[in-house]
Q: What sequence folds into this?
């Protein structure tokens, strides 16, 4: 069967399965099986798929039709132009989070400094930042040892050397290990911030992602508020805390950051104009 025909059938099947991007999903899965770029498919769509390729592709399409995220099926997702290995122990990096990377880079004018990424998952934020600021040192921590190994693997594969990853429940390991007891110029996080009862959790890819990376108490603020308080002991004077959050959380979060003693509190919008990142500058105790 021709690749074009395979794709058309898979697209129809995925549409019926409820995917919001059926054609794109089918193309990404076929590229993964054939080990080619998407542009290759547009030129060579009249080629025949081999029997093994077809079987492998159809198995992936079937899993996708059951709702499995494409990034878990291919084991990869692009973020900030970096191909990152992904897996079910981490949140799948989202384009939205590039807003947080941009906000961190905008504050990182100096040629050197130290950044800490809390709840790093695949390492997406720390790696994107470190790749843009070779003179800085980045550290990413995650409560999941599997996530830490994935992030370390990504750093090796991308040959990004100015980043380290370690297992830690938020800042606990830094507290315990004196050699990690340092202060940072920037502390960033894309923590869990969804409310337990949010209907968003029962739809699409998020059903397959770790709940611990998504859900934070009754109202979604539990971890955000914890980080606002704890980060103060790890920021240099004049250092910045930057937190990603949900569309409707900016105002309350800004107030909480101000109440905790930070200055210059500001909420920044994502590419779609929605408030998604709030930052505050730590003036010192
Ligand atoms: N923005 C993500 C979502 O809506 C959630 C990410 C998070 O909780 N940190 O699925």
A:
């Amino acid at each position: 069967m021709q690749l074009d025909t395979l794709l058309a059938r898979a697209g129809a099947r995925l549409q019926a399965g409820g995917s919001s991007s059926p054609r794109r999903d089918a193309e990404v899965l076929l590229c993964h099986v054939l080990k080619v770029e998407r542009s290759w498919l547009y030129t060579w769509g009249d080629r025949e798929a081999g029997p093994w390729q077809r079987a492998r592709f159809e198995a992936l399409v079937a899993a996708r039709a059951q709702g499995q995220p494409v990034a878990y099926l291919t084991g990869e997702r692009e973020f900030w132009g970096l191909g990152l290995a992904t897996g079910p122990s981490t949140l799948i990096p989202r384009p939205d989070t590039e807003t947080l990377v941009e906000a961190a880079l905008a504050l990182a004018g100096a040629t050197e400094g130290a950044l800490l990424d809390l709840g790093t998952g695949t390492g997406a934020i720390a790696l994107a930042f470190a790749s843009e600021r070779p003179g800085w040192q980045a550290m990413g921590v995650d409560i999941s040892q599997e996530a830490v190994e994935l992030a370390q693997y990504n750093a090796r594969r991308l040959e990004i050397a100015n980043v380290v990853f370690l297992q830690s429940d938020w800042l606990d390991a830094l507290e315990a290990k004196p050699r990690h007891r340092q202060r940072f110029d920037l502390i960033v996080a894309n923590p869990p911030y969804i409310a337990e009862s949010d209907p968003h959790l029962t739809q699409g890819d998020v059903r397959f992602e770790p709940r611990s990376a998504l859900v934070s108490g009754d109202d979604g603020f539990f971890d955000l508020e914890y980080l606002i308080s704890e980060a103060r002991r790890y920021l240099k004077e004049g250092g910045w805390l930057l937190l990603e959050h949900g569309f409707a959380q900016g105002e309350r979060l800004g107030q909480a950051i101000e109440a905790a003693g930070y200055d210059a509190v500001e909420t920044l919008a994502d590419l779609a104009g929605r408030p998604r990142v709030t930052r505050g500058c730590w003036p010192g105790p």
The mean pLDDT is 95. The pocket of glutamine is lined by residues 94, 96, 190-194, 200, 206, 214 (CB under 6 Å).
